[in-house]
Design a protein that fits this description.
single chain; 105 residues; alpha+beta; HU Protein, Chain A; 2 domains; two-stranded antiparallel ribbon
C-alpha cells in the first residue's frame, strides 16, 4: 500500500493534463487552499462522485483518562467529517457502478 502525497498528485496532474510540473503543483495547491478556506468558514465541500467534507461542532463533555480513570473536561471543538459518496464506497468495496443512474455521479 502506498500513501498518496501532494507530490504524487501533482505528478499525476502533470502526466494527465499536460501542464508543466510547476503549473501542476500550483494548480493542486490552489484547489487545496480553496477547500481549506471553505472548511475554515464552516461550510461544506462536496466533490461529486467522491464525497463531502464538512465541519461539525462538538460540545464540552467529560472524558476519562484511560490510564488513570480520572475524569477530565474535554473542551468544545470543531471536527472535520468526511462522508464518501455511494460511488466511492462501491469502488472501495470492489462493486461496479452498474445500475447507477447518470445522476448518481
Amino acid at each position: 500500500m502506498t500513501t498518496v502525497t501532494r507530490a504524487t498528485l501533482a505528478e499525476h496532474i502533470y502526466s494527465q493534463v499536460g501542464l508543466s510540473r510547476h503549473e501542476s503543483a500550483e494548480l493542486l495547491e490552489s484547489v487545496l487552499e480553496q477547500i481549506m478556506r471553505v472548511l475554515e468558514q464552516g461550510d461544506s465541500v462536496k466533490l461529486s462522485g467522491f464525497g463531502t467534507f464538512s465541519v461539525r461542532q462538538k460540545g464540552r463533555r467529560i472524558g476519562r483518562n484511560p490510564k488513570t480513570g480520572v475524569e477530565v473536561p474535554i473542551l468544545p471543538r470543531s471536527v472535520l467529517i468526511f462522508r464518501p459518496s455511494q460511488i466511492l464506497k462501491a469502488k472501495v468495496n470492489g462493486d461496479t457502478t452498474e445500475g447507477m443512474d447518470e445522476g448518481d455521479l
